[in-house]
Amino acid sequence: MTDPRPPIAMLAELTHRCPLSCPYCSNPLELARQEAELDTETWAGVFAQAAALGVLQLHLSGGEPASRRDLEPLVRAAREAGLYTNLITSGIGLTERRLAALDAAGLDHVQLSLQGTDADMADRIGGYRGGFDRKMQVARWIGDIGFPLTLNAVPHRQNLHQLPRAIEMAVEMGARRIEVATVQFHGWALRNRDAMMPTREQAREADAIVAEARARLKGTLVIDYVPADYHSDYPKKCMGGWGSTGLVVAPDGAVMPCHAASSIPHLSFDNVRDTTLERTWYHGSAFNAYRGTDWMQEPCASCERKRVDFGGCRCQAMAIVGDPAATDPVCIKSPHRAALTAQADAHAAANAPLVHRTAPGKPVPDPVD
């Protein structure tokens, strides 16, 4: 295996704290507590290491990154390191004054999540009363300041009928792009497959809606699309290929090839408190576990698509098959595909209640009717 190229992007999960309780949350089941989070100085050092390693884009995420009181100094440190900074946020915890401070600190871009296109849907999915109205106010402030905006919509069985309106809202907000990321079942989201799995008909309808909107809005809005995994013929190229384009730093400093990699039990992860990003990227055992193609089993090993999707998602193979080296069962060439199709249809036909996520130390939210 040849040495990997330097990474171009880093996802900095500043905290797992979050005011929302989204049932599709893909963060690990065991969340990092506040006392385990990296401090400001350590994060600033990580940003400098990332830039020296070759990272160009820094995505500040969580949880809700606005839960960090030092968000502005962190953005400033990233800017001083020469990184392009993107804030991935629910909007909760942001005020007009704080957004202005982030602008002054050098924030380049905002990615705003959308749980639904009206208050009834958004507040019910997010488990936060008043969240939708707050989000719409934050969107107006973002526009007033002039931040480039991406809207991030997570369609699933309960809100897929709102997809056309979500695309309209992105245009109305002046967003440059919308990410239509159909629910991915990792972490907590696995508990909600019976409540959120789209039907096969919904998945095909979403494909058509996105195709029509891309043609109609070309030059106005970029639409990034992650289709419904369980209803696709081939898996997505997760993270552009394991350990090939980006890395993730968890709130406690663990460095991972993707944010769900902790679901693979045999992997061990280096920590920024103990070693450098450079050493981890090139020599870390977790990064080299599924890098390239040498690790592949059949049918991936002899497949003409092995450098197209790199076997698909390792975490999904682990979750569904119990073997992270197996072909992603989404693939029509996987021996597990028939079982996955039956499983997906059963989940889509179920009528289970949503199980909202709760963070460490956070009380279980009251249901939002």
Note down, in words, how this protein is organized.
The structure is a single chain. The chain is α/β, with parallel strands linked by helices and 369 residues long. The chain is 33% helix and 12% strand. The chain is globular, with a radius of gyration of 20 Å. The relative contact order is 0.14.
What's the topology here?
Layout: E1 9-13, H1 40-53, E2 57-61, H2 71-80, E3 84-89, H3 96-105, E4 109-114, H4 119-126, H5 131-145, E5 149-153, H6 163-172, E6 177-181, H7 193-196, H8 200-216, E7 222-226, E8 246-249, E9 255-256, H9 277-283, H10 285-289, H11 314-321, H12 337-349
Parallel strand pairs: 1-2, 1-8, 2-3, 3-4, 4-5, 5-6, 6-7
Antiparallel strand pairs: 8-9
Helix pairs in contact: 1-2, 2-3, 3-5
Low-confidence stretches: 363-369
Largest beta-sheet details:
9 strands, mixed
> What is the average of the pLDDT values?
94
Number of strands: 9
Q: In angstroms, what is the radius of gyration? A: 20 Å
How would you describe the shape?
globular
Strand content: 5-15%
Walk across the major sheet and give the strand order.
Answer: 7-6-5-4-3-2-1-8-9
Question: Whole-Å distance between the termini?
Answer: 54 Å
What structural category arises from helix and sheet content? alpha/beta
- Report the order of strands and helices: EHEHEHEHHEHEHHEEEHHHH
- Relative helix content: 25-40%
With helices defined by DSSP (H or I, 4 residues minimum), what is the helix count?
A: 12
Oligomer category: single chain
